Amino acid sequence: MRFKCAVIPLDQIDLNDQTFLITTSERINALSLSINDLGVMNPPLLIRKEGLTPGRLFSVIYGFQRIAACLKLGWDSLDSRLADGSISGLTCVKLAITDNLSQRPLNLVETSRALNLLALYFRDDTCLAEAASALGLPGNIALIRKLKSICHFAPSIQDGLLDGPLTLPTAIELGNLDEATGCRLAHLFSVLRLSLSKQREILTLTREIACREDIALADLINGNELKQILNDTNLDRSQKTGTLRSYLKQRRFPSLTLAETAFNANWRKINPGNGLELIPPPHFEGDVFTLRIQFKTVPELLARNRSITKISKNPVMKKILDKNFQ
Question: Rounded to two decimals, what is the model's pTM?
């Protein structure tokens, strides 16, 4: 496809018209240095705006960052390519996507923007997937539907995806919450730099607590208990995470927490020594306990055997097996 070339005054380009904007990166400083040294290697593509708009005569199809960098350098005009007014909107979208993909892999937010632009011209998901795949975007329909939703998330959730702490599954769940609650959780996950498993655990616990206590999830997330944990300057990030998880588990399973605490206290009373670990039934709902034995030598094994005999005669052991922890 051939385009006309022209020198366009920068004050005639409408950067507020972001119809075809895909990039999220802020590379203005580095790009300015490069342009100042080598010039603009790939001129931006512009199109004349419809109607008689005083001043801002051109919209950008691609090259937003290049134009911003030239403005930072104090340039008053820029060699540009001009698309013919008869060019279709779909072609403009394809050109914008191709230009961005030719420079770098798109992040999740950029991919979402690209897919949403493309979806304006393909109402059928199968056709959209084929067009996306042909351009180098994901072609799986289920994944496309998930990625498209990112554009509608609050900025803090999008930022969490870009910075790394938030995963796509978590971001989708947060995006389905009310905006204030989703943003608060996104901030919490980002501050603590939680893994996917811990993000899911905290989401599950907070939802179940809110349901069990018949309170709003927002009230739980904004409660003083969570604020005190997050604002405790004596705890590092890892300690805050551990304290938060422990608090939520205790609040979600108060009876189980009491049982675990009492079980551990009784096991300490027995003082089994090294190399022996008693494991209760899951959730204390069964009757089978597991004794784990660790040893390196035959003498150690014999010592463990003597300890087991001693433990079996301890009256506290009967309390444990009867699950009478008081």
Answer: 0.74
